[in-house]
Amino acid sequence: MRKIIFNKIVVALLCIICGTACSDDFLAETNPNELSTGSFWKNNVDLNTGLTSVYNGFKNTSIFNVVSENHRADMTWPGFGRPNTQNAFYLQTFNDAENDIRNKWAALYVVIFRANQVIENGNRLKETYTDQDKIDFATEIIAQARFFRGISYTYLYNMFNQGSVPIFDFVPESEDEFYQPVSSASDVKAFYIADLEFAYENLPPAWDGNVNLGRVTSAAAAAELGRSYLYEEEYTQAAVYFNDIITNSEYGRSLVDNIDDNFSEAGEFNSESILEVSYSVNFKAELNPFDSQNVSNTLGRSFSPGNLGGYRSGVPSCWLQMAYKNEAMDLSDPRNFVPCEDGSEGCDPVTLTRPRSYSLRTSYSLALVDDVDTPFYGGFLPGQVTPFNNKECAYFRKYSNWATVNSENDIVPNTRSGINIRLVRLADVYLMLAECLIKGGTDEGGLNDALALVNEVRHRSALQLIGLNGTGSYPGADHDNVAYSAQELMEHLMYVERPLELAEEGHAIRFLDLRRWGVLKQRFQDLSTKKYWGDNYVTTDTDGKVVTRWGALLIEGENPIAGGFTYVDYAQAAVNYSENLHGYYPIPNSEVTANPNLNN
After folding, report:
1. Distance set, CA 288 to CA 4, 51, 314, 444 (Å)
2. Half-sphere exposure (Cβ direction) of 44: Cα atoms closer than 13 Å
3. Strand ranges (DSSP E) for 170-328?
4. What whole-number distance in Å separates Cα of residue 566 and Cα of residue 548?
5. Strand, coil or helix: 128
6. pTM reported for the whole predicted model
7. What is the DSSP letter of 298?
8. Which of 277, 265, 269 shows the shortest CA–CA distance to 206?
9. Which residues of the chain fall short of a pLDDT of 70?
10. CA distance 86 to 538
């Protein structure tokens, strides 16, 4: 057994709800073969088992909706077959009947209901304990449950009905108690802040041993608290939590040397990881891969090429491809040079090295047809192993199993992936703190410290640093030699650093960033005016045969070939997007129909 959430064990514990008492003595007899709340919640072992069901509920990928949430932003084109698509999230035409919206809502409330059972019974059991170790252990369990209840409510608050959703702080014991009205957004925020604060104060900064690998920590609570305050533009308060994560040695957090460790199966739970959800292909093979009880995910197929078992549910948008392709490397850094044969193009005859095709961040984020330095599936180069047809000029590497299999079809059972979803990592915290230090682009006082944080993230990937030559922590590195203002640095964070470092990661990071900055409509309008075209690229296939990858090399501008295809993204989103209609999801119609008290 390899891994799942924590303890490497899956416990499929359903919600335990009190039944209605019967007057008939015979019917009131306890069935010894069935669990009840009275017979189950007896001690900390039961609490820990119940907590496992909370962790297991949170791994439901409907909570994160990685594909749909990025279609809502400026990250992706929804699948193949340009120029037409019917995807309602990309077109900004979704409504309260969408399956993804309904499933997200339901999955979050499952976590909340399960967490409430642990919290309620944990508090009850604590009152019966006299042993301090038992009390402390129960408190840690409760703190984990409150973290998951809190983060579930942050997701509901940020995504649904302008933050106004039903609050459950108890275990319903009758059908009527499931029908709660919506609470005000301010009450919802106060509720989840209290949960996350409790978790922050009562969870350890780290857990001992592999047996606890994957348990949430006070660092995860600090990150979610800081993010919540940042989203409300409460920069000073947010910075308190971000600084704690970065400077507190008990957390032991540091940027990993290789950015790919943040995306690969081999690099899971590394020193940069703050919150990630664990998956495995080693269990529940009998389930449909899309079953919500599965412990694997299907994201490997979502982003990989069609000939390699992929669905191409989301391919990188044109602007994102070009931004990655144009990333400047630090040519003083030896990591940006690879060995070459004397006399080959770009080869230095003295060192027998040449510059990389693309930056390390670009190569480990995207598969590009002309990247001749970073292997893809089966150890072959991207242009060798996939044809880049159907007007597809790039694929996301994140979430795909390119490093371990020849094709997604090779994974057994199929349509599964064991790669973890990284929700929060240290680089994200660095960039959020940088935004706080410049107060969202209005304060020059923290500019140098903010630049230093951004450059730590860039230096990790051997990118050209930003700022004046000879400054900062790496004065000998290549810089862009620009004297940034706070506003200019904010623009860099908005349109370069955060999207390129964190593409497809976290929970709706890009959408929520663009919405909170108030630029989403304008962003769609600006991007809809940009044009691109695909030039042909000649390479060799896996057999060494010379082949042409037609239209695979994306170039910005109007297609110079008469009648040639020109790419335009977000034309309909620019027209359709409305903050009032699409800034938040509506409460799903299934809830509206079922809950008579929703608006009472």
Report:
1. 18, 25, 22, 54
2. 16
3. 273-277, 315-316
4. 19
5. coil
6. 0.93
7. S
8. 269
9. 1-38
10. 33
C-alpha 46: how far from its chain's center?
Answer: 31
- Ramachandran sector of residue 425 (left: φ over 0; alpha: ψ -120 to 50; beta: rest): beta
In terms of Cα–Cα distance, which of 154, 171, 291, 174 is closest to 223?
Answer: 154
Residues 6+ apart with CB under 8 A from 207: 213, 215, 217
Query: How far is residue 487 from each of residues 223, 392, 479, measured CA to CA in Å?
Result: 24, 35, 19
Bridge partners (DSSP) of residue 537 are 549
Rounded Cα–Cα distance for residues 97 and 272 (Å)? 38
Q: What percent of the chain has pLDDT over 70?
A: 94
Provide the residue count of the chain: 600
Closest by CA to 80, choosing from 394, 297, 298, 328, is: 394
Distance CA(520)–CA(491), nearest Å, equals 14
Please give the single-letter amino acid code of residue 365: S
What is the per-residue pLDDT for 359?
A: 98
**Contact between 259 and 460 (Cβ < 8 Å):** yes
Cα–Cα distance between 168 and 192 in angstroms, integer?
Answer: 11
pLDDT of 36 reads 59
Q: Which helix H or strand E contains 549, and what residues bound it?
A: strand 546-556
* H helices present in 555-600, as ranges: 571-576, 579-582, 589-594
Q: Which residues pair with 353 in a beta bridge?
A: 339
Give the dihedral sign, CA 348/351/357/359.
Answer: negative
Q: Kindly list the domain boundaries of the chain, sorted by start residue.
A: 298-409
Residue type present at position 503: A
Instruction: Name residue 293's amino acid.
Output: Q
Residues 6+ apart with CB under 8 A from 334: none
DSSP-assigned letters across all residues of 466-479: -SSTT-SS-TTS-B
Residue 489, judged by CB atoms within 10 A of its CB (0-12, 13-18, 19+), counts as buried
